[in-house]
Design brief:
single chain; 8-stranded mixed β-sheet; 17% strand; alpha/beta; 2-enoyl-CoA Hydratase, Chain A, domain 1
Length: 620
């Protein structure tokens, strides 16, 4: 038997070394190609971008609109591309950079119009779309026209397109407005078949993270709460489209939100032609392929602003100054971004890790020029332990004399709200998902699984706690101890919010219980102070600090100049690789979603296994 195990061990070791050799060989080959591209790029003389008179700015978005760009892990990204485990690397467009560029274009006499090319736009939150859209409306107020085009319009793309004066769709395209939904996978029966026992501890009627492991369908409480905020957001979407496209007389609420009977009837009337349907109900203004669309711009423009040239977003942005310019003022407002799940320890930038994030807060506290700090949060929560550690640092920041304003992005719920509650002021977008004041803990044991396959465990211990582990059943006494800890965590959460928001704990409990609220509801419930965006938060911070003239400084993790250089080169060079090798099959996309939901239990980390996390705080 020992020989057999040694043989199996050696087989896997040698197999791993072989595959690792192949992997390194391929990575080195790709690295050589990238180095070659870099060498060629350095020997290519770049011409300075010149903006011609009477130009249209092309907002050609191919990727995701984000709060803050993430640093690229070069070797990890190359591996993903070669193994096909990731789609073509999407570009990232920071919301504030987009707004700045549109604002400059509005004032630029050489820019006479704006083209929204939206085919490649993959994702953006409602608050980001609204902020960019407001900048587009400001652009239009100067008399400059805006045109939108996409091969097909997704719900996200169409939200932005609605701001345009004229929306064009090709004759073979469609507009897909599906509404919003919250759907989850439920693993109870799978766990039963595998004889895995989930142990659940929670407080909060609406705290539904654990439901997929204990139920086969969504509870009525969860359906009630989710339906409430989903309806709010969808009605807001419908109203937005109707307001922005009021010039089209064919457009009605049923154009955006038809029932299936009406949709079938209207499609039959145009022989199933989806583009004609979109035109007939007022969703678009014109059917034309891209080349014809570009030719038609002159016909749709005023005579004095007809385009003769176009300049794309990236080229135009290189002619503009940085987003935040400093003058050396002794009055500064710091902006700190926090996006992703909240975790304990350190992270590579895709999460809010308490050690990393607190270092940024400490940096602000030590700078005497900084009079106020705006913390921009976009997080569904995570570790209760890490959330409290960050909250303590926010309190220390206030104790150092700084004013603190939290600006909520698309979601600042559960652990995110735990942190936000300590601020002097909280500002949320109307569409922000927040609240979710509840707590849970869970783990699984596989003792029954092991017994089924003939593996048994036995031994002696000095203490009942010594027999706690994933391979052993959980005793009722230990189960009660865990529940006591979770109930203590909920009581602490209520106290934290009570102190931060000047509410009684009973008042907090009424709007807590794990329930999710929109920014509009949160304002009515006293969980936030006003509705607005990042710029609103900066203005509020200035008012709290009693300063009129100030610099805005961005505090972000230290990245070496070498890493910045490599990230820039990599993001440019990778796009030159054949796109055929970096497309994600549909099956892998489905499996990725399955893995994402199933891996939450292992992805979150907390030393006490207590989590303040909102799983349903995303819309599809």
């Amino acid at each position: 038997m020992a020989f057999l195990f040694r043989f199996i061990k050696q087989f896997f070791i040698k197999s791993f070394k072989f595959f690792n050799f192949i992997r390194l060989l391929i990575l080195n080959a790709v690295f050589f190609i990238i180095v070659l591209v870099i060498f060629v790029s350095f020997n290519t003389q770049e011409e300075k971008v010149q903006v011609a008179d009477n130009s249209y700015l092309r907002l050609n978005l191919n990727g995701d609109i984000v709060e803050q760009k993430q640093a690229i892990n070069i070797s990890q990204e190359i591996s993903k591309q070669l193994t096909g485990l990731e789609q073509e690397v999407p570009q990232e467009y920071e919301t504030q950079e987009l707004i700045k560029t549109i604002n400059y274009a509005q004032q630029d006499s050489k820019i006479t119009g704006l083209i929204l090319e939206l085919t490649g736009l993959q994702s953006a939150s409602l608050d980001q779309l609204a902020d960019v859209g407001n900048a587009i409306n400001q652009f239009k107020s100067s008399g400059k026209p805006v045109f939108a085009y996409a091969d097909n319009y997704t719900q996200t793309q169409y939200y932005l397109a609605a701001y345009a004066d004229h929306v064009t769709l090709p004759p073979n395209g469609f507009v897909l407005l599906q509404g919003y939904a919250v759907n989850r996978l439920y693993f109870k029966e799978l766990l039963n078949k595998l004889l895995i026992t989930p142990h659940i501890f929670k407080v909060g009627t609406y705290k539904s993270f654990v439901e997929p492991f204990t139920e086969t369908k969504m509870s009525q409480y969860s359906k009630e709460a989710n339906k409430h905020w989903l309806d709010q957001l969808w009605q807001g979407y419908i109203k937005h489209v109707l307001v922005q496209r009021k010039a089209n007389k064919n457009l009605t609420a049923q154009s955006v939100n038809p029932d299936l009977i009406l949709l079938k009837k209207q499609l039959q009337a145009v022989s199933g032609d989806t583009s004609q349907y979109a035109l007939s109900v007022g969703l678009v203004d014109e059917l034309a392929f891209y080349d014809k669309f570009m030719i038609n711009l002159t016909a749709h423009s005023n005579e004095n602003v007809s385009p003769s040239n176009t300049i794309d977003f990236h080229a135009y942005s290189t002619t503009l100054p940085p987003l935040y310019q400093t003058t050396g003022s002794n009055n500064q407002i710091a902006v700190i971004h926090g996006s992703g799940e909240i975790s304990a320890g350190y992270s590579d930038g895709i999460a809010i890790a308490d050690k990393n994030f607190n270092a940024l807060l400490k940096q602000a506290a030590k700078d005497n020029r900084i009079k106020a700090v705006v913390i921009r949060l976009d997080t569904p929560g995570g570790s209760a332990f890490a959330s409290e550690n960050i909250r303590q640092q926010v309190l220390a920041l206030k104790a150092s004399g700084k004013k603190v304003v939290v600006s909520m992005g698309s979601v600042t719920a559960s652990g995110g709200y735990w942190i936000a509650s300590a601020a002097d002021k909280i500002i949320a977008a109307p569409t922000t998902l927040t609240g979710s004041i509840g707590i849970f803990g869970m783990f699984a044991t596989i003792d029954r699984t092991l017994e089924k396959i003939g593996i048994h465990q036995d031994g002696v211990a000095t203490n009942p706690l010594s027999n706690f582990g994933v391979t052993q059943p959980l005793s009722p006494e230990l189960s009660e101890l865990f529940q006591i800890g979770i109930e203590n965590g909920y009581a602490q959460f209520l106290k934290v919010v009570s102190e931060g928001r000047n509410m009684s704990e009973s008042e907090v409990d009424k709007v807590a219980q794990g329930r999710v609220w929109t920014g509009v509801d949160a304002l009515q419930n006293g969980l936030v102070d006003e509705l607005g965006n990042l710029q609103s938060a900066i203005k509020a911070a200035a008012q709290l600090a009693s300063i009129d003239d100030f610099d805005i400084v961005l505090i972000e993790p230290n990245v070496s100049s070498k890493q910045i250089f490599l990230n820039k080169i990599f993001s440019q060079s990778l796009s030159l690789l054949p796109s055929g090798i970096i497309k994600q099959p549909t099956l892998l996309s489905i499996l990725s979603e399955l893995e994402h939901q199933a891996s939450l239990v292992t992805r979150l980390n907390d030393p006490q296994n207590r989590f303040v996390y909102c799983t349903q705080c995303q819309i599809r």
